[in-house]
Design goal:
With 351 residues, the protein is an alpha/beta fold. The protein has two domains: 187 residues, Rossmann fold, CATH 3.40.50.1980; 141 residues, Nitrogenase molybdenum iron protein domain (Rossmann fold). The protein is 36% helix and 14% strand. The strands form four sheets. Strands 8, 9, 10, 11, 12 and 13 form a six-stranded mixed β-sheet that branches. Strands 3-6-7 form a three-stranded parallel β-sheet. The two termini are 24 Å apart. Keywords: Coiled coil, Signal, Transport. Its main location: other. InterPro entries: ABC_transptr_periplasmic_BD, Bact_iron-sidero_bind. This is ABC transporter substrate-binding protein.
Length: 351
């Protein structure tokens, strides 16, 4: 998905408003408890807990029982930790008929809260903006936004009605490991979160071991739009997509590193007229269809990208697969490994 469109889509799912009783900044009736995993009731003695983030800090005085989420990632991590949110955004991009994803559906069913059942989370669309009323109706104890793009105004508005666990530094830049640990701390499940991170990293390492040709190969993860005035966008090391490739043993291309030093953005624009400078062994891009992949190869400018010339282009037209890497989390990454890593291995063989 093009960063310009991606930014608009993700920004639309950035925040939500609600009331709570478990947090220090606004008492409310907590209502029924969310479904928990093996340790879901074991972390009460961890509270109160104070979590620092980009807008200051949020103190949770008690273990949250009703959890609402905004943006991508946060609901996935909550589910991976065994806690079913009372409310979560619908997956309008890359989602299925449930407005969910295969990895979320599988976990919801495991936890007895499949979409369409009485125990399922409420779903709200954030395509057109923050679903304040829908989220408030779920009466949650905490809002999880560890991976999100909240603005100061968003955060201030939300904080008047409920505490928010926001991202630590960069909007849309929270590493999946950090999101997992932050959410684990907020839910009183820090030990579970550490185990989840370790297990996910082990799964990634095992997948990488099956494709040793990836080790040390340079990459650029970007977006190529043939015939577009924008032309090229390149994801930075602040984004989870390049992070995932480095976890597989690949190395971000020098041209990206040198041109993104000090950047707090998750992508940078790049002139198509300079496409030939994008030197890497492998180039990964989202495309809307196979025809676009063919158009890239025949484009007079984009075809000069070294990885395109060599055939080492990974052009992903599966929106669900794209989402699994873009919104990286322990559930989505494990689901993606068998589908995405072979594509990288094939490209690396051509480099």
């Amino acid at each position: 998905m093009a960063p310009s469109r991606l930014r608009g889509l993700v920004a639309a799912v950035a925040v939500a408003a609600l009331s709570l009783s478990a947090c220090s900044t606004g008492p409310a009736d907590s209502g029924a408890a969310a479904t928990g995993g093996s340790s879901a009731s074991a972390g009460a003695d961890a509270f109160p807990v104070t979590i620092e983030h980009a807008f200051g800090e949020t103190t949770l005085t008690e273990k949250p029982e009703r959890v609402a989420t905004v943006s991508w990632v946060n609901a996935d991590v909550s589910l991976a930790l065994g806690v079913v949110p009372v409310g979560m955004p619908a997956d309008t991009y890359g989602g299925n008929e449930n407005q969910s994803t295969p990895w979320k559906d599988a976990k919801l069913e495991e936890l007895g809260a499949a979409i369409g059942t009485e125990s399922a989370p409420a779903q709200y669309t954030e395509t057109d903006g923050i679903a304040f009323d829908d989220i408030a109706a779920t009466a949650p104890d905490v809002i999880l936004a560890a991976y999100s793009g909240l603005s100061q105004e968003d955060y201030d508005t939300l904080s008047k009605i409920a505490p928010v666990v926001a991202y630590p530094e960069v909007a849309y830049g929270t590493a999946w490991q950090d999101s997992t640990r932050i959410i684990g701390e907020a839910l009183g499940l820090s030990d579970d979160a550490e185990q989840l991170v370790a297990e996910t990293e082990q799964a990634i390492a095992e997948a990488a071991a099956e494709y040793p040709q990836l080790e040390g190969k340079t990459f650029i993860y970007g977006n190529l739009e043939p015939g577009s005035a924008e032309g090229v966008s390149v994801y930075t090391a602040n984004d989870n997509r390049p992070r995932f490739l480095t976890e597989l043993g690949m190395v971000q291309a020098d041209v990206v590193t040198e041109n993104t030093k000090g950047s707090e953005e998750f992508f940078i624009p790049w002139s198509a007229e300079r496409a030939n400078e994008l030197d890497s062994d492998v180039f990964v891009t989202w495309v809307p269809d196979e025809a676009t992949e063919e158009a890239i190869a025949s484009d007079p400018l984009l075809s000069q990208i070294p990885a395109v010339e060599s055939g080492a282009l990974v052009a992903d037209s599966d929106n669900t697969l794209t989402l699994s890497i873009s919104a990286a989390n322990p559930l989505s990454l494990v689901w993606a490994l068998d589908r995405f890593v072979p594509m990288l291995g094939e490209a690396a063989d051509k480099a």
